[in-house]
Amino acid sequence: ACTPMDFGTERRDRPMPVQISSAQMIRYRDEHRVLTFTLVNGTRIEGDVKWFDDLSYHVATAEGEITLLRHAVLYYRTKE
I want to staple 39 with a disulfide (CB 3.0 to 4.6 A). Which of 12, 21, 43, 49 is the partner? Predict the structure, then answer.
């Protein structure tokens, strides 16, 4: 008979690590820093982040507000 494997509870008891990118994005949001998002299709969108979650960024641009899905964002940079 096959018995289920017990991996213990250590892994479930550990707190989730804070992702550096999330901490960075919180700082950018709070400072109202202008970011340039480059999408996978080459489009560039510039604006400041109003809110974000695990799946998206909501950005205020000069033309209005837009929600970008994270999987469509190739990278982002701060405006210098």
Answer: 43
Burial bucket for residue 31 (CB in 10 Å: 0-12, 13-18, 19+) = exposed
Q: What is the pLDDT of residues 36-66, one digit of tens each?
A: 999 999 999 999 999 999 899 999 999 999 9
User: Residue 59: which of 75, 41, 35, 40 has the closest Cα?
Assistant: 35
- Alpha-helix residue ranges (DSSP H) falling in the chain: 10-13, 20-30
Distances (CA, A) of 78 to 5, 10, 15, 35: 47, 39, 30, 4
